[in-house]
Amino acid sequence: MLLLGACAGWSLITAAAHGGRPEGMLLAVLAAAAGYAAGRVSGALLPVAAPCVGAVTALALAVAVPGLSPGPWYAAPPGHAGATAALLALATGAACCAAWATAVPALRFGLRALACVVVAAGAVLGSVAGCAAGAVVLVYSLAAGAARGRGAWLAGPAAAAGLVAAALWGLAGDALPGGLADALRDRLGADRVRLWRQALGLAGRHGGLGIGPGRFGELGTAAPRVPPSDGRPYSAPLQQAAEQGLVGVLLLAAVFCWVLYALWRSPRSTPVALTAGAALAGLAVLASVSNALSFTAVTAGAALLAGWATARPWTGTGTTPWAGSGTTPRAGTGTAPRR
């Protein structure tokens, strides 16, 4: 909560300094806080059903709502490829978490079949990134059953996400070898790379407070917009760097690192924690090369998955509801004794 509060506070500070619009960041913080709280509660009470319903919902959103748009529902629908891929990755992770949470073999098989359906849906929808991300999460989840520790298994996806972000930064700054840079540029699109270069240039000139949240569309006019870019540089780290400076990037990285730390310390089983870590790392990779985090459904879905994977299963035998009251419930009753 301190990190989310810092993200909200810093967006207000940078907006006050440069006249930006912090509503997008505030909405993302609100969605993340609400999603994480709902995930912790529902994951404690319904450790199998909650992520299963979440997986089906994310799949339905990816399939039935092709006009996903960032921000309020009444906004003009921009490109949604990154959001579709992110929803598919989160849906696969939720289905696999539900599969590891149940002890019923038939139900576990069915939930893994649901994860396979999500991966296939990515191919049917034409979302190559979503299909690939879902397949990686599924394979990683199956391999996590043999894991004996969490540190190295969580460090791997984190390192992959960091490597992608570093490669993107190098591509935007012309720091990669010529052959590799040309290959990435051809694959990602020259217009998108130009947007990244402009975002990096703005970050270099305004490294302290940035140019203000939501102002890249106003100042980033030198590079042609990637239709429909909606004034975004198609990269969460570079957008943070350009609009909120170095502190904004550090806060974004700190939230991701804290989630991995919470998964490392999670009371849930190791396969559940590792599956969620792989799915969230996949989302981090997608957010580095798209505007996936601009979609409220994606932000809330990621927080829900983190909440499900870190929830302490409810046993019904604790005395937490009466903590600090000075009394304890009577054996065999569900109420506290009268004074």
Could you please describe the fold and organization of this structure?
- The structure is a single chain.
- This protein has 339 residues and is mostly helical.
- 68% of the residues lie in helices and 0% in strands.
- It contains 13 helices and no strands.
- It has helices spanning 2-18, 23-45, 49-64, 81-101, 105-125, 128-144, 151-172, 178-188, 190-205, 216-219, 236-264, 270-288, 296-310.
- Helix 4 runs parallel beside helix 13 (296-310) and helix 7 packs across helix 9.
- The chain starts with a helix and ends in a 29-residue tail after the last helix.
- Mean pLDDT is 85; it is low at 69-79, 222-229 and 318-339.
From the structure above, extract its key features.
single chain, 339 residues, mainly alpha
**Major sheet description:** none
Low-confidence parts, pLDDT < 50 over ≥5 residues?
69-79, 222-229, 318-339
Mean pLDDT: 85
Number of strands: 0
Separation, N- and C-terminal Cα atoms: 36 Å
Instruction: Provide the β-strand percentage band.
Output: under 5%
> In sequence order, what are the helices and strands, one letter per element?
HHHHHHHHHHHHH
Rg (C-alpha, Å):
21 Å
Indicate the percent of residues in helices.
55-70%
Helix vs. strand class? mainly alpha
Contiguous helical run count: 13
Q: Categorize the overall geometry.
A: globular
